[in-house]
Amino acid sequence: MKAQRLGAWIAIAVGASYFIIPLLGTLEFSLRMRRGAYSFDAYQSVFSDIQFRETFGYSIIMALLTIVFGMLLVVPTAYWVRLRLPQVRPVVEFVTLLPLVIPAIVIVFGYLRLYNSSSILPLTGSTSGTNALLMFSYMTLSLPYMYRAVDTAMRAIDVRTLTEAAESLGAKWPTILFRCIFPNVMSGVLSGAFITFAIVMGEFTMAALLNRPAFGPYLQLVGANKAYEPSALAVIAFAITWLSMGLIQLVSRFQQSASPKA
Fold this sequence. Notes:
Helices cover 81% and strands 0% of the residues. The protein is an all-alpha fold. Helix 3 packs antiparallel against helix 9. The two termini are 39 Å apart.
């Protein structure tokens, strides 16, 4: 038994070292911009760069829009499939997994072919249209995670009973969806939202090919032209991802603690 525990701790230590040591090295290098001393000069340089603020703010806005529209697409779809169309559930699950199989560069080239300036729906012919196309691209990338999170949360509730109870009280479909279903699957929605936020903040391929001022292309641009700032940006990107993962854990624990009371 002790040997098994020791082996488990050794495996955990090796796995943690694989991730933590490179990150510590990146953090240490980002603090060496001032010769002979540790400083936050690289971070100050990044935060004072107007292009950083513009791209970071743009990606945050795109992430929030992707979360909202993704939620409005996924929650009604998962609800309707579970309530009325359980026979098509395997098909829906297969479709939601396709973004994991098809490379992002293939997806965005397909969008460019379908929605270029000479097509019936020329989204790339204007800035707002290209922004909308990028948001839909982000929705496609986040679809597997958002759908899985919402579907898992929906399994934990009795959708049919809630719907029948609401209908017996005279509630219409919008009321049932937004006042009965959404509050009960909010933990799944939030989990999917945090994952979506992390994906959008670090995505490069789609934003670069659509020529949008997002945070991902900015990371690549700084990495190709500067020395210490890319390490600072890498630490910032890690912090955003870990914050999202931590919020997912917080939401999951809150749901588990609230379940026995319910």
